[in-house]
Amino acid sequence: MKAPAKPAVTRLLLFSHTTGYQLRAFNDAAERLGVELVFVTDRCHRLDDPWQDRAVAVRFHEVSTSLRAIIDRARRTPVQGVIAVGDRPVVVAACAAEALGLDWHHPEGALASTDKRRARRLFREAGLPSPSFEIHRVADVVQDPERLRASIARFPVVLKPLGLSGSRGVIRADDFEACQSAVWRIKALLARPEIRSARTGLEDEIIVERYIDGAEYALEGVLTRGALQTLAIFDKPDPLVGPFFEETIYTTPSRLPEALQLSLSEAVRRGAAALGLRHGPIHAEARITANGMIYLLEIAGRPIGGLCSRVLTFGSGLSLEELLIHHAIGDDISHLRREARGAAVMMIPIPQRGVYKGVTGEDAARAVRGVTEIRITAKPDQLLEQLPEAGSYLGFIFARGATAADAETSVRSAHRTLSFAIAREVGVVSARA
Fold first, then answer.
1. Who contacts 346 (Cβ-Cβ below 8 Å, separation ≥6)?
2. Would you say 97 and 82 are in contact if contact means Cβ atoms under 8 Å apart?
3. Are 10 and 294 in contact (CB under 8 A)?
4. Model's pTM, two decimal places?
5. Span 369-375, mean pLDDT?
6. What is the rounded CA–CA span in Å between residue 9 and residue 297?
7. Alpha helices, DSSP H only, in 191-297?
8. Please, which residues have CB within 8 angstroms of residue 140's CB and are 6 or more apart in sequence?
9. Cα dihedral sign, 305-307-311-314
10. Measured between alpha carbons, how far is 49 from 43 in angstroms, rounded to an integer?
11. What domains are defined for the chain?
């Protein structure tokens, strides 16, 4: 019997929002590898291919309707795999992969990875360390603060919106007064139109959990039918103790003892299995206490976000996006390892609220030893916000060095040469008729 003929064109479905640095990074990677991408994006289906990329127009909150459009396209244009960028696209990608018989994360696993409530319960059921927590509707605890007080055994606690990712809306409270203030601040954030329009179904709920004292780490990995390949472990050298949790620097390779790195990888493998993630990229966040206890904060069924992936290269220079495309089309990537040199990325923090006007010192920053790239992503006249409301950074600084410590020194030195002009926000006063 003859083996099935190899498709003339290797093609992948790429699930993503309409904008984003990762979308372009995957597109560039696919072109280098000779792989065709079929974009599945949340654009208006009534527009006649406005970007001229023949994308499948979907709404990530309308899974059934989106699936019909995806399956129809796949029947006419067969695909060999899927990739998803961003939390919401992961769920639709999982449902589409199941419908098309392609390897990817299980739909229930993808859904659990985007819901802190489900994730915490599943981690606990799997025997993984997990902080005590309670779930509240924001409106309920605003109307009846005593309900919130009664649910907290001791402080400090951390309040997190269930429907937001990263550090957005995450606030530490050391007493009940701070807790009430945090609730009101989160309530205002969740009322914003752009957040309501995401329709995650979780916009009205928060998780209140015990604060875990420890250093934070991130793990970038890929699952192949349940087997975890750890691609990188990132240290976060700046302390993340609150009241807000702005991530600034990632460095790799990790300076954790090797035994603790292996324990972190095993905890992430168990956590991914508990959620139902089985095939594809994962990005995990964890806290490790002084006595070596590992608490998983989240495991997302997607790669690291934004431009941060540029800090990683593999083998003879493959980008993370190229590696993941190879994995998605069924190639063996088990032999690929991250480069041996130290690397660091700084997500440039926003020093104050205001209107972005520009930056000086870029040439001096690029001249710093070890710096490989500086990308200022803030746009002129863009309103900048700090955490917990912020949803972006000023930009990114990348560096490499003999060690992770050398790369960290480079990004810090480059950051000190940059000066950002941020004007005071001008309020609008409406006159009565």
1. 248, 249, 396, 397, 411, 412, 414, 415
2. yes
3. no
4. 0.92
5. 97
6. 40
7. 193-196, 258-275
8. 147
9. positive
10. 9
11. 11-112 (3.40.50.20), 132-210 (3.30.1490.20), 342-433 (3.30.470.20)
